[in-house]
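Quarterly update, task 2.4: tetrahydrodeoxyuridine-bound model.
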Amino acid sequence: MKEVLIKTKLTACLQDELTLELRDLVEAAKAKTRDAYCPYSHYYVGAAALLADGQVWTGSNQENAAYPSGLCAERTTLFAANANNPKTPVVALAIACYSNGHFTEDPASPCGACRQVMLETEHRFGQPMKVVLYGERECYVFDSAADLLPVCFTNDNLA
Ligand code: THU
């Protein structure tokens, strides 16, 4: 028997310390929170995906009276980007959350299902996707979606 310690690397920084490209992506995610349809949770989430050709696709959470029928901002965004650009890799994804009149102090934290979809996006294009989680106090930057989902389930498991 042995214990295995899993390490994850993230970079904590302010939005201003990001590269200009990622700073703009975060700004797009923050702006998109305004379009969230969240009459049940009042928790506004925005996401912005940067594609390899420079396009930026944005999305927000979309809720439904039949609760499970809604979808998180991250999946709304990635599915839209991938459905319309099936051959263009996503190189970065920024996420921001707005609640009780302000952006969250702590970095946004994607749910497990969204982490799974982020990972699949990386895999289908065969290249890492940076993930930027915005927080008023600090942002977290992950070099790869895989860093957010250790011991994951992928197409390798189906082989
Ligand atoms: N939500 C997201 O859009 N992304 C996340 O990563 C976490 C949660 C949404 C789903 C729901 O509309 C609301 O936030 C409250 O859970």
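Highlight for this quarter: The longest helix spans residues 112-125.
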